[in-house]
Amino acid sequence: MSWAGPGRRGVRSFDVGCDSTTEVGGPRRSRGAVRDGCPSVTARAVALARSQLPRPSSPDGDPAAEQRLCATLPPLPAWWRWRRRRGHLAHRTAFFDQEVIDALAVRIEQVVVVGAGYDGRALRFRRPGVRFFELDHPATQADKRRRLEAVGASLEGLTFAALDLMREGSEAALASAGHRLDRPSLFYCEGLIGYLTRPAVVRLLGELRRRAAPGSRLALNAAEASSAPPRWRPRAAARRLALAAIGEPRRTVFAPGELEAVLESTGWRIVRLERRVHAGRGARLLVAAEPRPGP
Ligand SMILES: C[S@@+](CC[C@H](N)C(=O)[O-])C[C@H]1O[C@@H](n2cnc3c(N)ncnc32)[C@H](O)[C@@H]1O
Fold first, then answer.
1. pLDDT tens for each residue of 32-64
2. Which H/E stretch holds residue 242?
3. Beta strands of 5-109 (E only): which ranges?
4. By three-state DSSP, how is residue 257 classified?
């Protein structure tokens, strides 16, 4: 694995709304997790912040293509940038990078990125014989595909499937994308779970379990509420309001122990759980799991 240094730090005028190049007929409010027709702003924010981090890549990977992709993304206003949470993002990025590296090391040939946004691991960790499946909301995925094409990124080994996980199941989408039930997969959901309702999370985890051949692995991150009484925090409240305003409200924060129970009930056995507790503010969880034996 090689390591590349930080990427671009440019700051231009910002835009948190719909990119005019992706909009036909103006944005509509959505019952789904993002505004219909609008690429995800949170996906853009994460990709821009992650592009500043030193990252590993595989010998056949093309990390420069990921940097070119990120360089096309319109910058965000200062309050959107991850200054205060950069440490968390670096830790989370390293966790998911390592899950991919470990999966490739044990010859897993299918990597399913759920809620992929502008994640560039399919480029960065490309490897002959390995297929990356990216599932995402149609507007964000279409925008990403246009940007990848514009920067001349090779899409070898990458298959896209567009769907709204609040309204549609992922099993049929994966099957028709060519995902194989008889081969193990790494499934990962980075920065996705909080944007889905609990029923949608439970359904998704059950569906992924049904597509998980023995030897598969699941990695995800989620937020856990504090067991202490909630305190008024203007900054956190402002952020919640901002997310709701852009059509990406936070929908799921688990009670302590709840995520573990959900994973258990959907057929997953936790093999690694990192809980970073923030005094009085709950915790951020990074979880890896494997399918419990059974159908
Ligand atoms: C915070 S972004 C994270 C993106 C990416 N995983 C990353 O870490 O860079 C949340 C992602 O979840 C996707 N998402 C949210 N709600 C969704 C839904 N209902 N169906 C499909 N994708 C959804 C968004 O389109 C977006 O790409």
1. 445 667 999 999 999 999 999 999 999 999 999
2. helix 234-245
3. 55-57
4. coil
Q: How far apart are CA 121 and CA 62, in angstroms?
A: 9
Q: Which domain holds residue 118?
A: 26-291
Question: Would 15 be classed as within a structural domain?
Answer: no
Per residue in 128-139, pLDDT (tens digit) is 999 999 999 999
| For ligand 1, mutation pick of 53, 95, 97, 136 (most atoms within 8 Å of CB) | 136
Asked if residue 140 has pLDDT above 50, the reply is: yes
CATH code of the domain containing 154: 3.40.50.150
Q: State which ligand 1 atom lies nearest to the alpha carbon of 43.
A: 2
Taking only the tens place, the pLDDT of each residue in 285-294 is: 999 999 999 7
| pLDDT value for 246 | 82
Rg (CA), the chain: 18
Tell whether 10 is covered by a domain.
no
